[in-house]
Design goal:
This protein is α+β, with helices and mostly antiparallel strands. The protein is built from four helices and five strands; from the N terminus they run αααβββββα. The chain has a five-stranded antiparallel β-sheet with strand order 1-2-3-4-5. It is globular, with a radius of gyration of 25 Å.
Length: 157
Amino acid sequence: MGMKKTAAPKKSKSSVTAKRTSKAKPAVPPRKASKATSPSELIDQRIADLGDWRGDLLSRLRNLIKSVVPSVVEEWKWRGVPVWYQDGMICTGETYKEVVKLTFAKGAALDDPARLFNSSLEGNTRRAIDFRQGEKINEKALKTLVRDAVKLNQSKA
């Protein structure tokens, strides 16, 4: 009796596809691995990564917020935006090529006698302040806005 020949096992389409796709380059290059894990550490890392006037300014604004609201909660949202909370969102800190922007979540409901708000003025809810390189910060008025934003959050809590 002769030995029966057996065919080599067929590869399934999924295993062939898996081999092809595993060699494919990712559409977006991976970011450098960061050891930062908490939102505060991620904000620290963002400030360090900026390495220019924007990082320095974001750090100053962050410290100002923390001086007004020592118990502020820092979050890291939307793929890299620092957000500060106290009984609700106070503001975000975004960095762009030409500006560092503080966007107050309920800014339209805040009094702004110093006229700090200079961006996102058309909406019914948010208001923002664009800070440009070298501009002087009216710290007293900004602290008042932060304080008032927290009071507004607490009144609606």
